[in-house]
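Obj: model holo form, ligand = succinic acid.
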Amino acid sequence: MTSIKTDFLIIGSGIAGLTFALKTAKFGNVALVTKKEIMDSNTFQAQGGIASVFGKLDSFDFHIQDTLASGDGLCNRDVVEMVVKNGPDRIRELIDLGVHFNLKISGSSVSESSGIEPDLDLGREGGHSQKRIVHAHDMTGKEVESVLVEHVKNNPRIQLFENHIAIDLITISTRMTRGLITTTHEDYCCGAYVLDRKTNRVKTFCAKITLLATGGAGKVYLYTSNPDIATGDGIAMAYRAGATVANLEFVQFHPTCLYHPEAKNFLISEALRGEGAVLMDAWGNPFMERYDAQKDLACRDVVARAIDTELKKSGTDSVFLDISHKNSDFIKERFPNLYEKCLSFGFDMTKEPLPVVPAAHYMCGGIATDMHGKTDLQRLYAVGETACTGLHGANRLASNSLIEALVYSHMAAQQAVRDIETLDFSLAPDPPAWDEVGTTDSDEVIMVSQNWDEIRRFMWNYVGIVRSNKRLERAKRRIEIIQQEIRDYYWDFKVSADLIELRNIAMVAELIIKCARHRKESRGLHYNLEFPYRDDKRWRKDTVLRRSFLG
Ligand code: SIN
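Output (holo structure tokens):
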């Protein structure tokens, strides 16, 4: 049984995990665990960019107001102010590391480390009153991720574990029989059990500080813009270990993913609408003016619901997004990746509208944290999409996710370093070894794929953009049966990556359903036909869940 001891254990290799790794490696040893290759992350896919105040006509106040308005009454104002005001410094740090963002001058993109304020080219997206999206063409995530990865790989204090998938967190009171974890209030996190996918062996990682930076959970839904890794692992592990999770009913559906059988819900960035693209029905009629005064640049919840209504009304498979009225050279220069990708599916966006549909995109809820990314399970931090910091409220403002990850990984790293210097780590006993006594290799892999498909389909149909009491009730009944099957199977067979992910998406689905059934109003991304209005008197509060323990 392999055991690895480290100061900082980081699970996840997107912008949050990588930034935290680089900042903490100055003060201790870091083990960075990622379940596939290091570049396989939600960050890598991010097209639009990073929202931050650089424009001459913009102000912190404007960005704060836009974020609060999008969050529909549930944002934590202190958090919003902290993220918005820290944003520009964190972006300057990226530029100093070598990230190339687009500059205004002739559309070129050079990195600046001279201390001179770069004249950034700023895009616009839904819900933003100003141009404030810092971007690297339409491949911002790829640019940021590649630079951070290069720094991480060259850092001798960071040990990288690719193709390692975390199974469960270890807490000091872990009574370990394959993930049966009991926790008390004095409990704390001391690492994780991790499956090495190449050898199929479970390793024990013992850490002073553990960070969950595992990204989103789009794979809980049948249609999602997210990559395959987005299975809500952090939320599921944290909840099982006893940390509080919150606001999981607020699942953001991106309004525009390419509708094509082979496109796997390829995202068509909101930046397109920021540059003038218009949504139209199958007959070429623009429709957003009937739904919101901001038309195509309304907040995402409004646009996604409008498309859902149009699709149900017309019975068509998709609506259309048209930017072909813009100069074709401009389109190719501003959106080179989108242009090429759409062309490969047979659509020339300089000449014709693109067929688009909404898909699950971003989890606004997650593991509850304080302003330093600390969860309520001691020594456990959570940053990025897996966390619920209070920034997004009931609906995330476009491009506010990467800035949140940057600011919070900075705050969390500072706090974690303080923890390392002040907490007493001498008494932590060695965690019990991973126990697979009595398990055999699976003879029923079909159970895993069947339940994967079933969960994703009923979550899409019953817990999607428009919900109702009846649909949520049906979803609850189904998840209960599936959870029982997974539990039975889990005890009998050796763990595999597929089983670990199934267990996690089932857990997250159950938590989303619980939160959605609890909230008896419609707000932000949560829309229930039986409670169509926002009810501030009773529901202007977070939905908070914590696992109750028997032992
Ligand atoms: C997009 O490019 O439309 C996605 C940006 C985001 O989700 O913030």
